Amino acid sequence: MAHRFDAIVIGTGQSGPSLARRLTEAGRKVAVIERKRFGGTCVNNGCIPTKSLIASARAAHVARRAADFGVVIEGPVRVDMKAVKARKDAIVRVSNEGVEEGLRENPGITVHVGHARFTGPKRVEVDGAVLEAEQIFINVGGRADVPLIPGIEVVPYLTNSSIMAVDFLPEHLVILGGSYIGLEFGQMYRRFGSEVTVIQRNPHLIPREDEDVSSAIREILEGEGIRILTDAAVTRVAERGGKVAVSVTAGGKAMEVTGSHLLVATGRRPNTDDLGLEAAGIETDERGFIKVDGQLRTNVPGIFAMGDCNGRGAFTHTSYNDFEIIAANLFEGEERRVEDRIITYGLFIDPPLGRAGMTEKDVRRKGIRALVAKMPMEDVGRAYERSETQGFMKIIVDAGSRQILGAALLGIEGDEIVQGLLDMMYAKAPYDVIQRAMHIHPTVYEMIPYMFEDLQPLE
Ligand SMILES: Cc1cc2nc3c(=O)[nH]c(=O)nc-3n(C[C@H](O)[C@H](O)[C@H](O)COP(=O)(O)OP(=O)(O)OC[C@H]3O[C@@H](n4cnc5c(N)ncnc54)[C@H](O)[C@@H]3O)c2cc1C
């Protein structure tokens, strides 16, 4: 016999639990299904654990630089990897348990643990139970996409999930992938004390970014002793004497990189292949992402897809924003759309990159008449006082409207201060507003008005 609900939420990622709560506030009877760990990727294998580990790695880094600040540490700095992992686990546990408790304690929600599969447009099966509802919200996220490299099926490798169990120091971590995940783990493990090699297929790290940003990031990481191979195709992986040998062709030259451990960070794929979508008639694209419109509706009435599985974003904030859009449209009578949001993200290496809006190459591609300002972090007093002057800030504005089109802030606090610019972009305010405001001294942000004094035409 089928159990009837008003709504079913599949997956407890970054939008499902919030939407479930909002549905109950509207008096709906909701079923929530989670197959593994409550809170999904961000909480268990993504943002929260990596940023906790990055904090430990930064502490080690600052301790090693203690003498630069006149601080004396007697003896070498040693990292206790078991303690690092225990700290990370404790932080993760708070969020993981918080999500689960929040769902279980809500009288309007019935929690099911198990793998959900559609067996019809309005029907889902989980652990032998049949659930039916008029509205179904899919929030199943994604997982590491492991490329079909010859040898990968027999070589032990780590992903962003399995590396969470590591409580020892890999002697030499070889990382496939030079984008966000690979670079954050790369710098982190280098700072813990591992030798690190990053192998990137593209000619540039973080290929979405402008070349000046990607080159500066490379310089920062190489400055810490990370070996980076770009334009590098991996042709085979093999186990050799307890080590992992990676055959690479980089810049036309064949070589072999041998490490103690291999981390695959080459991309993510949606968890949609075993969801029974065909039984419900839900369409996906050729990569498995569920097709949605700007209001996150699938092709089947009453079924929505939120978060990484819809291919419209790949971040916690995009998933949460999906919840906000759906909730506003369903309950507040609004007409919010994914197209209205401005792209933004952080790359949490140290110093971080904060990105908002268009890159320089986006602006050029669109042929927008624009002005650009750039300032090295060496010119920022706050960075100088902290002896952390790596990176630069770049802001692009529309030459006509004087509105900000995009910003890349690679430097201390770049991930925080870029959000002030982001809000200006949402407000569609001209940059003059920032120039006329009074800012706190000494901060990074106080330099932003001066950048606008030096805007140059983007040739
Ligand atoms: C290493 C790493 C670092 C990251 N760092 C950041 C960061 O700093 N900032 C940021 O914004 N983003 C970051 N991200 C991305 C971010 O984690 C994801 O974008 C975010 O978690 C997406 O959430 P989601 O809502 O799509 O679902 P997810 O968080 O992926 O959760 C999906 C949930 O659905 C469950 N599920 C899947 N299939 C089924 C099924 N059939 N039945 C029942 N349950 C199912 C899963 O078990 C999971 O709990 C990072 C990702 C990684 C891997």
Essential attributes:
459 residues, alpha/beta, six-stranded antiparallel β-sheet, 13 helices, binds flavin-adenine dinucleotide
Q: Any overview of this molecule?
A:
The protein is of the alpha/beta class. It is built from 13 helices and 24 strands. It is globular. The mean pLDDT is 97. Bound molecules: flavin-adenine dinucleotide (FAD). Flavin-adenine dinucleotide is lined by residues 10-15, 33-37, 40-42, 45-47, 50, 115-116, 139-142, 160, 181, 271, 275, 307-309, 314-317, 319, 348.
- Walk across the major sheet and give the strand order: 19-20-23-22-21-24
Q: Per the principal axes of the C-alpha atoms, what is the gross shape?
A: globular
The percent range for helix content is 25-40%
Structural class: alpha/beta
Low-pLDDT stretches: none
Report the C-alpha radius of gyration, rounded.
24 Å
Let me know the largest β-sheet: 6 strands, antiparallel
**How many DSSP H or I helices?**
13
State the total count of DSSP E strands: 24
Ligands bound here?
Answer: flavin-adenine dinucleotide
Q: Kindly report the average pLDDT value.
A: 97
Tell me the fraction of residues in β-strands, as a range. 25-35%
Distance between the termini: 67 Å
In short:
This protein is an alpha/beta fold.
List the topology elements.
Blueprint: E1 2-4, E2 7-10, H1 16-25, E3 30-34, H2 40-44, H3 47-64, H4 81-104, E4 109-113, E5 116-120, E6 123-126, E7 129-132, E8 135-138, E9 142-144, E10 172-176, H5 180-192, E11 195-199, H6 211-223, E12 227-229, E13 232-240, E14 243-250, E15 253-259, E16 261-264, E17 268-270, H7 277-280, E18 303-305, H8 316-331, E19 344-347, E20 353-357, H9 360-366, E21 370-376, H10 381-385, E22 392-398, E23 404-410, H11 414-427, H12 432-436, H13 448-453, E24 456-457
Parallel strand pairs: 1-7, 2-3, 2-8, 3-4, 8-18, 10-11, 10-16, 11-12
Antiparallel strand pairs: 5-6, 6-7, 9-17, 13-14, 14-15, 19-20, 20-23, 21-22, 21-24, 22-23
Helix pairs in contact: 1-8, 3-4, 3-5
